[in-house]
Amino acid sequence: CINDVQRIKKFLIEHGFNESDMIILTDDQKDYNRIPTRANIIKYIKELVSDPRNNDSYFFHFSGHGGQLELHNLLVDPLSEGVRLTVVFDSCHSGTVLDLPYVYSTRGTIKQPKILLQGAKNALDTGLRYFQGELESFRKSVKILATKTLEGHVIRRKNLQTMSSVADIVMFNEQTSADAHEGGQATGAMSYALIKSLSRDHKQTYKELLNSIREILHEKYAQRPQLSASHPMEMESPFTI
């Protein structure tokens, strides 16, 4: 959404970013190289993170429709320790777009991985079989449960190792994307809520900001915000870009 891009641009300038350092791709550009085609997006992402240095701060925003890119490989993998990246997504597939391993709830705690939740359900089903007297089925279930749980922990550990990063990476997105209209203009719900929250109070913790975004979205939309990170973070620390 072009309106989102203009709002984010204004927001970044107000927070110390220089317009000359920005790469902006929108559908209304006359220069083909500034239109957000897949090739152009990949090209400029690579250019953006080509020479990361200590204390560099990056901001990546995407608002619109489109397929998935291997953005973890493009945006996350090149970054080194001491580099900060803040990402805001208003798009389809935004829930898994960067595949960052640590997803935080509005309580400021790490959400349980799906594999562990499924393991708990399997354990409950196994216990019910035992109490219902299905002994043979119980024995088989215990074996299957033990195997699945072990595989789940192996997968989880592998994901943490491969998807984490020494750089400080934080992503704001919705579990599902939504188009919104504010003041007669089209906008992405996440972009709108983020800017509105920080316009009210720019000195918030990550936890406060996530809750504020949730409250703003809850007023009009069904979408639920998420915050994910490249490594465990202190949610009571001040939000910064």
UniProtKB/TrEMBL annotation:
InterPro entries (UniProt xref): Metacaspase, Pept_C14_caspase
GO biological process: proteolysis
GO molecular function: cysteine-type endopeptidase activity
Domain Peptidase C14 caspase: 1-231
Pfam families: Peptidase_C14
CC per GO annotation: cytoplasm
Family, per entry: Belongs to the peptidase C14B family.
UniProt protein name: 2226_t:CDS:1
Native source organism of the sequence: Diversispora eburnea
